[in-house]
């Protein structure tokens, strides 16, 4: 059977090549089956190695450009006598590259760094690379020992700071790794399970270099702060020995310092670093980009002059350009824009006088003052004193108490916040421009001006004061309450000098509420003065709509209005401004804490006009009060000092004429009344207007007069008052 010429399935009649008729075709098809995959692989290799090779090779030669902002210092705040009230104090921080502080050290980085230190011929020599690695590890140990010896920080403290930085970076690394893993899972497998889709996926999908390469964060290629503050001489030692401090960077920063403690704290205010939540809010507010280009940590004026003049004080950041290779190493560095420091803000406040005034107010508030004569007084809960140049409006003194040290406000504890929040003296409230309180009998000056200007009263007209208006149980003078008598025959000037309550009740009935309210507005009461300090309160003077007749505005309310009650509220600054109008000839001035020319850049002609306005009243606007009325009111104010009554005791000084008027404002209940004292000086050559306010200070102005007297003595000694 085996030697048979035919196999079992073949007959003698079949053709010789019936089973293998086309052997060459079959071999060709077999060759094609093997050749097509080879061609596919070759084509893919050509595509990767030649067609798109630059795409992958470019990564190794590609550089990245980044920009880093350079901080700029903010301007100083100085008093008129040159004392520094706020400034930026520079200090230096020590930053160490992450690879030099992580533990254990990154093996790949260590090997790459070791090879970089060797010649090209030795980079493949395992022994030489190992020795280079050992040198780097030794330098690393020496680095931290040197930092510990130089800075005085123990090794344990430095180790804890290194560990904190590493924990922060590793936490961030875990977050990024999770996101990267999720992305890889979604792209690693084909969308279908068929063999053809798998083959096509493997042949057509480029390898994902981003997910295949080791994960390296930019935080791992940058330096981190390990020492917050270091002296200049220590910094010089580090920079002089760079071989001992590899991976170390010295960066300059600054902090806001308020060297005078609580001096003028309400005026100066605070600059605080911008928090991350505040930065986020600014991004939402300015979707097209923050116009100030603020970054987290930049200081921003929060209160006081720091806020009002933030644009003036704030420095302009610089910009630095870095070019890095694929490994993150800096290959080029250049300065694009130099940082510009903020401008200095010079105030009109005299620091020594401000300090003296605040000390006197603090003593009174603390109850450490000696009671003058036998007057009934009490320790006030708060107080203020304002002194301003009545020709220009520049504030010489703007003292308020109680206050809180600005240094304490920068870094308060929770216990301090609780204490400040529950302090009955409300130490965050400035009694200069934010305390709107009843002016009391001091408002009688407004009523007197209204009566003279409308012709309802004349300077020579006599009025008989019997101590009360109609009945002895209401509308009574203080002298009647104390001695059971009246003022007798008085003129309007006498009524101003002795605070004759009955006279002004009678004048109110003749005037009605409208003229009184109108003249209060003309004298600047019940509205903001325009002070260059944010947060100023306007107070309240009943408006025309509330001054109708009938039941809505009874006659008794008009009498209260004429004597500074009836919901009238003003600020001590408004009272001082009113006295400036009376002292400068009837012209309104705008109070300022900074000289106009020092912070603004108007046209030259406007500067000339502003300067001329100091000596030429006609350039300050129309005269508000007639000379005839001014003469009468001034006579009353001078008489109040020359012949004071029990309610209007004033700070008389030998050789210095003062025009002033005291007053009280009842607040209801069992609480002591507010005490007022206001005027201008010298009376014969007016230069400064002032007001003193003591919150719940008692029924008489003795303590206010004592404060004013001491301040005026200091002003004379400083050469601010006296013969011109």
Can you put this structure into words, describing what you see?
By secondary structure, this protein is an alpha+beta fold. Helices cover 41% and strands 15% of the residues. It folds into three domains: 110 residues, Penicillin-binding protein 2a (Domain 2) (Alpha-Beta Complex), CATH 3.90.1310; 165 residues, no CATH class; 341 residues, DD-peptidase/beta-lactamase superfamily (Beta-lactamase), CATH 3.40.710.10. The chain has 27 helices and 17 strands. Strands 2, 3, 4, 5 and 10 form a five-stranded mixed β-sheet that branches. It has a five-stranded antiparallel β-sheet with strand order 12-11-17-16-15. It has a three-stranded antiparallel β-sheet with strand order 1-8-9, with no helix packed on it.
Explain the layout of strands and helices.
Blueprint lengths: L22 H29 L1 H9 L2 E7 L6 E2 L5 E14 H4 L5 H10 L9 H26 L3 H34 L6 H10 L4 H4 L10 E8 L1 H9 L7 E10 L7 H4 L2 E3 L2 H10 L13 E3 L2 H5 L1 H4 L4 E7 L5 E8 L7 E2 L4 H15 L16 E8 L5 E7 L4 H5 L3 H8 L22 H11 L8 E3 L12 H6 L4 E3 L1 H7 L2 H11 L1 H10 L32 H8 L9 H12 L12 H4 L4 H12 L11 H16 L16 E7 L8 E8 L6 E8 L6 H16 L7
Protein traits:
Beta-lactamase, Penicillin-binding protein 2a (Domain 2), five-stranded mixed beta sheet, five-stranded antiparallel beta sheet, 27 helices, alpha+beta, 724 residues
């Amino acid at each position: 059977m085996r030697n048979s010429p035919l196999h079992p399935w073949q007959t003698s009649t079949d053709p010789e090549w019936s089973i293998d008729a086309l052997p060459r075709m079959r071999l060709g098809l077999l060759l094609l089956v093997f050749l097509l995959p080879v061609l596919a692989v070759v084509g893919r290799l050509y595509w990767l190695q030649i067609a798109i090779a630059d795409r992958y090779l470019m990564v190794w030669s590609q550089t990245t450009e980044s920009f880093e902002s350079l901080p700029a210092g903010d301007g100083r705040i100085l008093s008129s006598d040159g004392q520094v009230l706020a400034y930026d104090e520079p200090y230096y921080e020590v930053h160490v590259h992450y690879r030099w502080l992580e533990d254990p050290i990154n093996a790949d980085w260590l090997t790459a760094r070791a090879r970089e230190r060797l010649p090209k011929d030795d980079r493949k020599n395992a022994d030489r690379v190992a020795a280079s690695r050992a040198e780097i590890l030794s330098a690393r140990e020496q680095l931290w020992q040197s930092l510990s010896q130089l800075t005085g920080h123990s090794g344990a403290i430095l180790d804890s700071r290194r560990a904190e930085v590493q924990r922060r970076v590793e936490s961030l690394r875990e977050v990024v790794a999770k996101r990267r893993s999720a992305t890889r899972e979604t792209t690693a497998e084909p969308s279908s399970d068929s063999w053809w889709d798998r083959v096509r996926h493997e042949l057509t999908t480029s390898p994902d270099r981003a997910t295949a390469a080791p994960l390296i964060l930019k935080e791992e290629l940058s330096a981190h702060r390990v020492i917050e503050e270091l002296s200049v001489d220590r910094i010089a030692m580090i920079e002089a020995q760079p071989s001992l401090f590899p991976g170390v960077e010295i960066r300059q920063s600054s902090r806001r310092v308020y060297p005078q403690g609580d001096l003028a704290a309400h005026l100066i205010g605070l600059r605080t670093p911008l928090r991350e939540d505040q930065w986020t809010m600014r991004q939402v507010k300015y979707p097209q980009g923050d116009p100030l280009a603020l970054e987290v940590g930049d200081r921003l004026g929060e209160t006081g002059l720091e806020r009002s003049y933030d644009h003036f004080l704030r420095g302009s950041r610089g910009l630095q350009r870095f070019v890095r290779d694929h490994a993150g190493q800096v290959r080029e560095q250049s300065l694009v824009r130099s940082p510009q420091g903020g401008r200095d803000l010079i105030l009109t406040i005299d620091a020594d006088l401000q300090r003296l005034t605040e000390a006197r107010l603090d003593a009174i508030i603390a109850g450490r003052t000696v009671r003058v004569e036998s007057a009934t007084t009490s320790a006030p809960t708060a107080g203020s004193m304002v002194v301003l140049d009545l020709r220009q409006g520049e504030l010489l003194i703007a003292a308020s108490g109680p206050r809180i040290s600005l240094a304490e406000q920068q870094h308060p504890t929770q216990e301090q916040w609780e204490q400040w929040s529950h302090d009955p003296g409300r130490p965050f409230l400035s009694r200069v421009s934010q305390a709107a309180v009843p002016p009391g009998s001091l408002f009688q000056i407004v009523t007197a001006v209204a009566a003279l200007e409308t012709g309802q009263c004349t300077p020579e007209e006599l009025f008989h004061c019997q101590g009360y208006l109609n009945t002895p149980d209401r509308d009574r003078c203080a002298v009647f309450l104390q001695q059971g008598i009246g003022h007798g025959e008085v003129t309007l000037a006498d009524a101003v000098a002795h605070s004759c309550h009955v006279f002004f009740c009678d004048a109110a009935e003749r005037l009605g509420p409208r003229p009184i309210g109108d003249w209060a507005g003309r004298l600047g009461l019940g509205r903001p003065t325009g002070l260059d300090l944010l947060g100023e309160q306007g107070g309240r003077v009943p408006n025309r709509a509330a001054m109708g007749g009938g039941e809505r505005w009874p006659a008794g309310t008009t009498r209260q209005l004429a004597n500074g009650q009836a919901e009238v509220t003003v600020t001590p600054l408004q009272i001082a401004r009113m006295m400036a109008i009376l002292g400068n000839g009837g012209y309104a001035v705008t109070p300022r804490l900074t000289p106009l020319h020092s912070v603004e850049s108007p046209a030259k002609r406007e500067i000339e006009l502003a300067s001329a306005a100091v000596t030429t009243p006609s350039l300050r606007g129309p005269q508000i009060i007639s000379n005839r009325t001014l003469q009468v009111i001034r006579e009353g104010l001078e008489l109040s000092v020359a012949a004071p009554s029990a309610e209007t005791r004033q700070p008389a000084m030998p050789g210095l004429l003062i025009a002033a008027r005291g007053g009280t404002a009842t607040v209801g209940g069992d609480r002591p009344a507010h005490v007022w004292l206001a005027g201008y000086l010298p009376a014969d050559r007016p230069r400064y207007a002032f007001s003193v306010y003591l919150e719940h200070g008692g029924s008489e102005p003795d303590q206010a007069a004592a404060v004013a007297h001491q301040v005026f003595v200091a002003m004379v000694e400083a050469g601010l008052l006296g013969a011109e």
